[in-house]
Sequence to fold (401 residues):
Amino acid sequence: MSRALTVLSLVLLLAGCAARPPVVEEQRRGEPRLRIGLVVEADAVRVRGQAGVTVRGSTAFDLGPEEEVRVFASDGTVWVEGRGGGSHRLTFESKDPRLFLSVNGRAYRGLVEVLSNGNSVTAVNVLGTEAYLRGVVGVEMGDRQRNELAALEAQAIASRTYALKNRGRFRTAGYDLRAGVQDQAYLGVERETELGSAAVRRTAGMVVTYRSDLISAFFHSTCGYSTASPAEAFHTVRQVPYLRPVSDRRPSTGYYCDISPRFRWSVEWDGNELRDILRNTIPSVMGIDAEMIDEVRALHVHGLGPSRRVTELRLEVGSGEIPVYGPDLRRVFLTPERRPLGSTAIEVSYERGASARISGAGWGHGVGMCQWGAIGRARAGQSAHEILTTYFPGTRIERSY
Fold:
């Protein structure tokens, strides 16, 4: 064979290897399987498999490679349109474990189950904890650089802890956790990254504990200067020693999270715009009649929490004052684009009849690990262990399996 043909053959061989999909990793001994609610109570979902699918219910049948089907429910029974089904639960399994299933066009590892909810369906991804985390870390932290690997490892450990701590909280609905921000963002295979997957492998089975129990591993985008106490952000989360304000200040100058694009921000409402927003949000969030918000006369910060976040803001209207407490602030004071307020670390200015302005620090509820702070700390050379035990003081990193 000529040298040119040899080189060409090698190129083709390498190209074939590069195109080969990743093999689904075996579960580790003792590794829990998770049930993730991908689509909850929808009219229908679309399912397909790269290599073809075996569908199991009251009977079994096969779908061809890349054959997409519509799955729906009627009177408590799940059906595959044009193919059959006739069961309360249908299980979809790829014929080749190296290839993926997709739900509504998004690829996932593991199995997919579709459950009936009367005349609606819920799609559930069933897979090992470590495979699930690969689809979490990539979306929670995005594409990162090699010098930020410790932050990805910290996220992997925190996310694993969260998943195992909250496993089964939607058991009566047929799954453990939801795929959205109600729990932690999970977008399957498409948002896996090389470094994120490496962080999951390097920390396999590791969790954060306090007195040998899994912690409530809260995390958020950007703390702004300090993390928050639970009472500043939530109505029902109890105070525990490891969830307390932690300064994010660097030893020299600035803050570890000041690299965040949302480190500082502001929002402004013109004229009666704020009044119109409050007439929609206050009834739904606080149960107060919209008629009370006839006009906005003034806004006053009336209370600050341990991290100096606003715990009470008083809204002066024609008939008196309405107190808005910290956990409700972000949902009550929506931006002009109808998005939640960035955080409750805010300063307020109001000119009656003209405009209102809120200037803020950080992004998110502020409790637990600051993700941008973790990235800044990783760049400064801190390990995942240092990052986590700083944001969750008094905790330990242990191996669960």
